[in-house]
């Protein structure tokens, strides 16, 4: 696995230990895309534009690619930016499905335990 990561990360600044996309960085990235600008994203997130810009710069450095093109109408995702956005959306959807599955298992377990408890401890 490490060898695959090393091959995949050649030419970028990704390493097996630094490829950690936290929710805040992705929230900033998606908000810039949604708002069309760093300033608009900063206003929506209620943070300084420099903080958003710094996070996007850090994300671009870690990915080894420019993720947003600065256009007169705002920030537009590059090919790499669209790929990251798609990847993050899929990861988020998969996480939601897994959590929902765990909730279903938990409810089934609770019903099973309650049923077993009724057999062992009938109503008095």
General description of the model:
The protein is mainly α. It is 69% helix and 6% strand. It is built from 5 helices and 2 strands. The longest helix has 42 residues.
Number of strands: 2
Number of helices: 5
As laid out across the biggest beta sheet, the strand order is 1-2
**Regions with little confidence, pLDDT below 50 for 5+ residues:** 1-10, 14-18
Largest sheet: 2 strands, antiparallel
Structural class: mainly alpha
Task: Offer a quick outline of the entry.
This protein has 124 residues and is mostly helical. It is built from 5 helices and 2 strands; from the N terminus they run H-H-H-H-E-E-H. Strand 1 (68-71) and strand 2 (74-77) form a beta hairpin.
Attribute tags:
disordered N terminus, LysR family transcriptional regulator, activator, Arc Repressor Mutant, subunit A, two-stranded antiparallel ribbon, 2 strands, 124 residues, WH_DNA-bd_sf, mainly alpha, WH-like_DNA-bd_sf, 69% helix
């Amino acid at each position: 696995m490490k060898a695959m990561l090393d091959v995949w990360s050649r030419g970028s600044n990704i390493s097996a230990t630094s490829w950690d996309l936290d929710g805040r960085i992705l929230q900033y990235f998606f908000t810039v895309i949604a708002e069309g600008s760093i300033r608009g994203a900063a206003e929506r997130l209620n943070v300084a534009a420099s903080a958003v810009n710094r996070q996007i710069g850090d994300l671009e450095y870690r990915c080894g690619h420019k993720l947003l093109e600065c256009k007169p109408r705002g920030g537009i995702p590059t090919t790499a930016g669209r790929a990251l956005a798609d990847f993050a959306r899929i990861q988020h959807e998969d996480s939601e499905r897994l959590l929902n599955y765990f909730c279903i298992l938990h409810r089934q377990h609770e019903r099973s335990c309650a049923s077993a408890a009724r057999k062992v401890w009938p109503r008095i």
